[in-house]
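Researcher: Sequence recovery benchmark, item below. Answer with residues only.
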């Protein structure tokens, strides 16, 4: 069953939905808890990080379908813990205040970067470690999985900064509420067509590699990468289409709290 490409497509789709939902559920539960609940979330998630590291090391020489699946899941575990730490406000950046409304241009960009600098540094260091250990290995799909997630996330952040029509602020946890003031809601910038074109080309490349792959492990690996890239591309189009993608996870979460601060941040994000 693990060697069936259609199972890989459905598996990637389920993991995308389920893992996103679990992360959102955990951080929003922490929002309703005590002041240290977000820190506890990151600490309790450390076994996930350890499992990812061990899984990557265990699969480097295993190019079978089972090895590729485990490498894919290990990369998701690494990514999942880093995102949990980010959403919990544990790994963010030195700037933790809303953007002053008068900032424009490069000053606004560098202040926005300051809100996520440590998070980006952790992602880059993790990617560098994966390149050092997995590049040239028999099974490098953990590296490729993490790289797809990394590029897609950087692209999404830049599009939110430069401007997109649709921005969902309800899922922002309280430690990251200030990020809303750095988003720009409006017509798409020139970066959007560039980013979606780049991802479409990557998707085509993975499909071509899947088509030409002969080994079962390679077929499953490129199927998973193609599915993950297609989902990342879909998430980008959600920033443009009038589609309520939040309904995919809304039932997992408590009703969002509306405070004067969140209302002001939403207003600011519309006006930048």
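Model:
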């Amino acid at each position: 069953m693990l060697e069936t490409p259609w199972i890989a497509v459905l598996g990637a789709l389920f993991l995308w939905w389920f893992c996103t939902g679990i992360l959102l559920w955990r951080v929003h539960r922490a929002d309703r808890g005590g002041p240290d609940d977000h820190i506890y979330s990151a600490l309790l998630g450390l076994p996930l990080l350890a499992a990812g590291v061990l899984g990557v090391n265990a699969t480097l020489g295993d190019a079978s379908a089972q090895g590729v699946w485990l490498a894919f899941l290990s990369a998701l575990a690494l990514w999942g813990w880093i995102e949990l730490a980010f959403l919990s406000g544990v790994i963010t950046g030195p700037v933790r205040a809303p953007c002053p409304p008068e900032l424009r241009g490069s000053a606004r960009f560098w202040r926005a970067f300051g809100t996520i600098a440590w998070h980006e540094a952790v992602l880059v260091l993790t990617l560098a470690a994966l390149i050092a250990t997995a590049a040239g290995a028999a099974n490098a799909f953990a590296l490729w999985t993490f790289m797809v997630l990394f590029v897609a996330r950087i692209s999404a952040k830049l599009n939110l900064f430069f401007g997109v029509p649709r921005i969902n602020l309800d899922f922002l946890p309280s430690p990251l509420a200030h990020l809303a003031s750095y988003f720009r809601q409006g017509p798409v910038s020139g970066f959007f067509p560039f980013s979606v074109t780049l991802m479409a080309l990557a998707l085509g490349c993975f499909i071509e590699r899947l088509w030409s792959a002969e080994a079962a492990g390679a077929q499953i690996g490129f199927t998973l990468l193609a599915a993950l890239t297609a989902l990342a591309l879909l998430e980008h189009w959600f920033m443009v289409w009038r589609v309520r993608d939040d309904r995919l996870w809304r039932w997992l979460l408590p009703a969002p709290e509306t405070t004067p601060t969140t209302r002001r941040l939403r207003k600011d994000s519309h006006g930048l």
